[in-house]
From TrEMBL:
Domain of life: Bacteria
Protein name, as recorded: dUTP diphosphatase
Pfam families to which the protein is assigned, alphabetical: dUTPase_2
InterPro entries for this protein: dUTPase/dCTP_pyrophosphatase (IPR014871)
UniProt lineage: Bacteria, Pseudomonadati, Pseudomonadota, Gammaproteobacteria, Alteromonadales
Length: 206
């Protein structure tokens, strides 16, 4: 397998694990992942800026975070409980290497949203177009995805559902701690996700 396909397999496995933690038979529940995609697209557009009547500067970091969130939903749409992760990863890898771009980022994002609304699908080519237009690599996606997925697991394991989870520690939100942890680690390490989790555990108030 190519390095990209290997990363995509890891992300698919992690997405299934997270969804299963929320609901054991999640892919039989008919969750509306497509709706989550187009709602996130709208939120992202606010971070990018679209209002012609006022000065706006794209918040690229926040746009990247939103794209990572969309990828969670996109993977969830692709997992069907039957097709192997390797086959899904190879299909995604092919599509991500064929970016469809509109005239600008906003129009490409609208292609992604339109596919979600009209066809209830994850348009990986338009997603790749968005990545290309904000200079986001597959490694950036992998780093962001594994980090956010691991943080979601960490939150669940530390009382997120019952309200006992502490979101701000030592003056920083958990997302900020996550960024610091990820920066200190080797993303190519086979235990990258485990190491991210261990880094969060080491920082979390006991």
């Amino acid at each position: 397998m190519s390095a990209n396909v290997t990363k995509l397999v890891v992300m698919l496995e992690m997405q299934n694990a997270m969804n299963t933690k929320v609901h054991e038979q999640w892919f039989n529940q008919g969750f509306d992942w497509y709706r989550a995609i187009w709602v996130e697209c709208a939120e992202m557009l606010d971070h990018y800026g679209w209002k012609w009547w006022k000065k706006q500067t794209p918040d690229t970091e926040q746009v990247i975070l939103e794209l990572v969130d969309i990828f969670h939903f996109g993977l969830s749409l692709r997992i069907d409980g039957e097709t192997s992760y390797q086959a899904l990863a190879q299909q995604l890898d092919t599509q991500l290497q064929q970016p469809h771009c509109g005239a600008d980022f906003k129009q490409t994002l609208e292609q992604l949203a339109a596919s979600a609304v009209a066809d209830k699908t994850f348009n990986a080519e338009a997603f790749a177009g968005c990545m290309q237009q904000i200079d986001m690599s597959i490694d950036d996606l992998y780093r962001g995805y594994v980090g956010k997925n691991t943080l979601n697991f960490f939150r669940q394991d530390h009382g997120y559902k019952d309200g006992t989870y502490i979101k701000v520690w030592n003056g920083q939100e958990d997302n900020e701690h996550l960024v610091d942890v990820v920066k200190s680690l080797d993303t190519e390490h086979p235990d990258f996700a485990k190491n991210v989790y261990a880094g969060l555990v080491a920082r979390y108030p006991s």
